[in-house]
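Attaching the record inline, Q. Sequence:
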Amino acid sequence: MNIVTKLLSTAVGLTMSAGLALAEPAIIFDLGGKFDKSFNESAFTGAQRWADETGGSFREIELQNEAQREQALRRFAEAGANPIVMAGFAFADSLGKVAPDYPDTKFAVIDVNWLSLPNVRGIGFNEHEGSYLVGMLAAQASKTGTVGFVGGMDIPLIRRFGCGYAQGVKAVNPNATIIANMTGTTPAAWNDPVKGSELTKAQISQGADVVYAAAGGTGVGVLQTAADEGILSIGVDANQNYLHPGQVLTSMLKRVDNAVYEAFSAGENLETGNFQMGIANGGVGYALDEHNASLVSSEMKAAVDTAASSIANGSMSVHNYTDDETCPAVSF
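Structure, as predicted:
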């Protein structure tokens, strides 16, 4: 038995003889780990909230490499876990192979809403909407008129974050300069805080005084460097305001925690199909708490809340990069 098989066998706990009175849910975290202070950690928070409220338990595994995706799915399914939740778009191919083999198992996958399988719940987010709001805050807070964006892996999903952000910036200051960089083109881009720091320093040298990180664990390096250099940063996915109180302008909230919590709560009765979460149904937003209250004036908040209401009621729309792979506000 190789080390990967040992790891998965331990994590999944193939103790079938013990049986399961009720099927336990399971979650598979993406590369970067469940304590990345961002996307994966938000997913873990949702799972833990469910466990705390119900007294239930769940199974979990943190992937170490791409090859483990399908193996982890199959082992959890064989062990009777139900539902099985995956954190990240990169599970799409593996799920497409595995789900048909386990028709009685429910699967939920975050950031994948194009699979049409009878036992799969796909959950997409309107990241461009939430990013628009934090872009407005960035432009209002900037003193130089130059703001930055550091993305993780260069994929359409992350360009959607950046494009929404740029539109929000331009809505406030049409003359603003937006510097956008991606960390890399492989999954390693999600967990490279050193590269995130380097990109942030480069953007600061070009005049950026607010930098938005949409880069998973890499963003930790962005926020740290921004704090060290005396500029503002914007967190992503989870509320990261607490990491550097008074120096994180806000965080773009992507409620991955709610998606996981709802899937676990539904259990084997999980409704399948593809679902979308945006401002209108509480899927995305921005964070305001004691750690950034001094940075967001009542005027700033009022402007952003007005925009949020307009997006929610459909009177205003934010261009979605993935609709046509173009962005009217920034070049990648």
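Residues 38 and 238 are 5 Å apart (CA to CA). The chain has two domains: 2-125+258-277, 127-254+297-324.

More tomorrow.
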